[in-house]
Specification:
By secondary structure, the chain is mainly alpha-helical. Helix content is 67%, strand content 0%.
């Protein structure tokens, strides 16, 4: 992860760090949806393409937000480790749900760290990730983006 520059005022460092984490997560999610799209069955490829496009747009918006906060945007990696092998359409659906759940957690952190317009955008990203996770998995959690307390 890219370090937060010292020239950034300390009050904004936490916001910048959370924005960088969200950007890194969006990079990973865009990559993951490339895998999902390649393995999804015909009935879900449109949904995968729609999510891929939405995540690219969020990634681009976060890139601008990081610059606005005085940081150098986190660069995408050439590849990302997947949480499990994705050999078929069922695994692709599980991967999409997992990508969205992970992204919701990162957006929840950004909501907590930010305010104003960035917080509103982070809340929208959290909401969208939670809705997509439900669509892909068929189930929901009480508080998307927050850890379960068993």
């Amino acid at each position: 992860m890219t370090a937060v520059p010292r020239r950034v005022p300390s009050a904004r460092r936490a916001v910048l760090a959370a924005a960088q984490a969200a950007l890194a997560a969006e990079h990973a999610t865009v990559y993951g949806y490339g895998v999902v799209g390649a393995r999804a069955d015909d009935a879900r490829t449109g949904e995968a393409q729609e999510a891929y496009d939405a995540h690219r747009a969020r990634r681009d918006a976060l890139t601008r937000a990081v610059r606005d906060l005085g940081g150098e945007p986190e660069a995408a990696a050439a590849a990302y480790a997947l949480p499990f092998p994705v050999a078929d359409a069922a695994a692709a659906v599980r991967l999409a749900a997992e990508l969205e759940r992970r992204l919701a957690a990162v957006y929840a952190d950004l909501v907590g760290a930010s305010d104003g317009g960035l917080r509103a955008e982070a809340a929208a990203g959290l909401r969208e990730a939670a809705v997509r996770a439900v669509r892909w998995s068929g189930g929901s959690v009480a508080f998307p983006g927050l850890p379960d307390r068993a």
